[in-house]
Each structure stands twice: as structure tokens, then as C-alpha cells.
Known about the structure:
single chain, alpha+beta, Ubiquitin-like (UB roll), binds FE2/S2 (inorganic) cluster
Amino acid sequence: MPIxxxxxxxxxxxxxxxxxxxxxxxSAGEMIEHKCDGKAQCGSCHVYVLEGRKSVSRxxxxxxxxxxxxxxxxxxxxxxxxxxxxxxxxxxxxLSFASGx
Length: 101
Ligand code: FES
């Protein structure tokens, strides 16, 4: 099973393929905003996927539309609730600044 590494704490958690980054972070005990409960509507779960981007699920039009409204997005930006882990390990970064509002 793939291993998800969460920055900046460096916590790791082994998850089943198909698990979202939001679920992985919560299972690892990380504090992560998720105000719309994973519906790609709030943008509060904005993260940077640093490694393993090619093995995670692709950005959907809904996620892309929400990302476009967030200040501070970059090429590594994703919504943690919309990213499903594939077969490879993933490293992502929780963002310390508020975004998506
Ligand atoms: S929890 Fe709201 S966009 Fe991810």
C-alpha cells in the first residue's frame, strides 16, 4: 500500500489506494480544514502535492474551478478532499495560511 507523507510535520501513514489526501491527513492526526466536508466547494483543504503527483487522481473540472478562486495557488496546488492516492507514495504539504475564502 502507498505511503503518504505529510509536511511540514513529516508524519507518514500507509493508506489504501483510492484514499483521499484529506482522509489520510485526518487519519494521521493532522489538523486540516475541510469546511465543506469534501465537496470541492470551500477550498479550505488546499495543499501542495510535492511528490507522487503523477500517480494521484487527475484534477476534475469542479476542482479546477475551485482552485481558480484561491489566492496562492501554484502548479502543485490541489484540494486534499479531491485527490485520491494511486499506487505510488505521495508527499504533500499542509498550508499554514488561510486560503479559499
Ligand atoms: S473540504 Fe472543502 S474543498 Fe475540500
